[in-house]
């Protein structure tokens, strides 16, 4: 709880540090990017990493080259297990937001998939019980608490974010109940499995990822716009609904912890 009491002031401090400049407009969308020069350097690193390591490794590991984007892949159980391990943290965030209904649904989804789904390798909760994942994170918790998004950031490996969401990513790792319940080695293994599950998403949306990351005239600006539009829509902050597959693909390309 001490960490939670410090999280909001820390977020406000970071936000205020990046709010001095007037937001610019991109395709009619306000973009607060005072760190664009540094962000573009990070983006160049992330883009090269995706082209040379993440993309090829994801395609090789998933075995989707000959199956098509919707066919069963070798990493499907890993994707399912990684997503299942993220559910306790989502339960905690829903409770912190004062939203018991999604917390209850995610709790029962976790219970069903952990037992009947053999540790989350399969998804009977969604397939047989009508319990889809209720997505959330501590960035959304801060938004519910009234913390503004702050400046846009692109983080090394983790990809597109904002100051508020960057704080949220750190806190999410700490408040995750599994982080405290599991032995240290088991907790690190669970984190590694969650990261590995994103490789399957990278392969699943490979064509869209490549079109955004590798084929765009300005991939930095396009990824920034996709992220901000969808994130604001997701948080009811005036964003625009876009193709969820395009957004998920673009973000998952370089964000192994996005859920």
Automatic annotation (TrEMBL):
Pfam families: MlaA (PF04333). The keyword Glycosyltransferase does not apply. The keyword Repeat does not apply. Residues 1-17 form the signal peptide. Keywords: Lipoprotein, Signal. Belongs to the MlaA family. This is VacJ family lipoprotein. It comes from Paracoccus angustae.
